[in-house]
Specification:
globular; 12 helices; 8 strands
């Protein structure tokens, strides 16, 4: 294990590329060999959140880990933060790597981008794993929005950006603390690492833009759903202290073949809080044991 003051890097053998796609450029890590798996992160983190799972999957998969549009080390364009456009971003990354089909593993905002990709490119997704976040407009979305914990869904704009400028760590600590079963599970090294990336010029603006696009995402998702539910196998994972079984409720509104897993002792941050159990659930599903 790395020292507490160090953030765990991707293993040797992973390469990084800046991949032009859909009018922007995504920072992408690529490693391993075998069938493809693409991992999409959420808000408060970057593709670096996936190190434990990527390390495991790289034993027998080609693992692709982008930073989403505007986040991490990816380019920060002014527009295109609706998830429909970001679904095209994902397709462009796979095209650039000459990969036709992949398993899709997502968390938080990554769920929303992943659903938009899967709904537009159904033939390109083998299996789909989603972790602990809703889909705009799908299933119990309106009820989920009523939770006071989700006030940040409507937080944004120039004044809010001024409020958090230079205080990115304070803002992000709130998510890591309140959405975890035990805040101690989010290491100081991880907090420093992600806060420094969100403090980069334009990064908080891009992050707020992900949430500002939700109204458009609702419209787009309802149109996707009107074309029919997803038919690939889906695993809906919820943290016991967060979405829990509600994750499967969401996905049963969007897909026909939904499997469910609840990770005991975890809040929202599954890869940090319960990585061993989460990796085991993903592995079991991808390996055909679920």
């Amino acid at each position: 294990m790395p020292a507490a003051t160090e953030f765990q890097p991707f293993p040797a053998g992973f390469q990084t590329r800046d991949v032009p796609t859909n009018g922007t450029t995504l920072h992408v890590r690529i490693g391993g060999q075998g069938p493809a798996a693409i991992l999409l992160h959420g808000y408060g983190e970057t593709g670096d959140m996936w190190v434990p799972l990527a390390t495991d999957l790289a034993r027998d998969h080609t693992v692709i880990v982008p930073d989403l549009r505007g986040m991490g080390l990816s380019a920060r364009p002014e527009s295109g933060y609706d998830k429909k456009q970001q679904g095209h971003d994902v397709a462009g990354v796979l095209d650039a790597l000459a990969i036709q089909r992949a398993d899709l593993i997502t968390h938080d905002i990554g769920n929303m981008v992943g659903y938009a990709f899967a709904a537009q490119y159904r033939e390109r997704v083998n299996k789909f794993v989603l972790m602990d976040a809703p889909l705009p407009g799908i299933g119990p979305w309106e009820e989920i929005l009523k939770s006071p914990l989700l006030w940040h869904f409507r937080f944004g704009g120039p004044d809010m950006e001024r409020l958090v400028a230079g205080r990115e760590r304070i803002y992000l600590d709130r998510f890591w603390n309140e959405f975890s079963a035990d805040p101690k599970s989010i290491s100081e090294a991880a907090r420093e690492h992600f806060a420094s990336l969100y403090a980069l010029p334009g990064a908080m603006h891009a992050g707020f833009s992900q949430f500002a696009a939700f109204d458009q995402d609702v419209i787009d998702n309802l149109a996707f759903l009107a074309q029919g539910k997803l038919t690939m196998k889906v695993l809906a994972i919820g943290g016991e202290k967060s979405f829990g079984p509600t994750m499967a409720v969401v996905m049963r509104a969007a897909a026909t073949d939904v499997h469910e897993a609840v990770i005991a002792g975890s809040g929202h941050w599954l890869m940090e809080e319960q990585p061993t159990a989460t990796i085991a659930a993903v592995r079991q599903f991808l390996d055909g044991q679920n």
